[in-house]
Amino acid sequence: MAEKKVIKVLIGGKVMTMSGYESEEYMQRVASYINSKIEEYEKTDTFRKSSSDIKHRMLELNFADNYFKEKMHVEELEQNLKEKLDQLDNSKHECAIRGVMIDDLKKEIENLKKEQHENEKTILKLQMELKDRDRQLEEHKKANEAKEKKPEPQTNTSEKAESDKEAGGTISEIRDFKDHRDQKQNEKNRR
User: Fold this and answer.
1) Which among 107, 32, 100 has a CA at the least distance from the CA of 92?
2) Is this model's pTM higher than 0.85 or not?
3) CB 160: neighbour CB atoms within 10 A?
4) How far apart are the first and last CA of the chain?
5) pLDDT digits (tens, 9 = 90+) for 68-97
6) Helices (H) and strands (E) in the chain, counts
7) 12: which residues sit within 8 A by CB, 6+ positions away?
8) Cα–Cα distance for residue pair 9/34, rounded to 1 Å
9) Mind listing the pLDDT tens digit for each residue in 18-41?
10) How wide is the angle at C-alpha 18 spanned by C-alphas 17 and 19, nearest 5°?
11) pLDDT on residue 97
12) Are 59 and 36 in contact (CB under 8 A)?
């Protein structure tokens, strides 16, 4: 615990002894404050003309008034500080939430990039397959065109007649056979 100090100060033109645990500088500041208030009130006629007892009461009232005003000011500052701290806590909480959201969005972006990469690979593969099929289609078309342009070997009529006979006779022979058969059928029907 700090040691109690005793010092002499000048207040209102009189030497007084002050004691306390605060520093000597602090106690001198207190004495100086009291002297400044006495000087301030000495400038008014009412204070100068009052008895010393009234002067003491006026100073005491003034100090009490200053004390309560300062106390109210400190309470307002503390309330403001509390509100600011609450706002800061809310801001920290919002920042934490946004940080989590940012992390989630970064993960989603990474997943979308992977998906895009896979889609690009699939598109490339499909494009290659399409080119391959287009090439196969062109080859098939060329092969068909070549077949259509290739002339059929021509056979002479005598060879054709022989092949028709081998297949069952010429067309005229087949017609004659049909006509003959139809005639016989008609004769049978008439009888």
Assistant:
1) 100
2) no
3) 12
4) 159
5) 999 999 999 999 999 999 999 999 999 999
6) 5, 2
7) 34, 35, 38
8) 11
9) 999 999 999 999 999 999 999 999
10) 125
11) 94
12) no
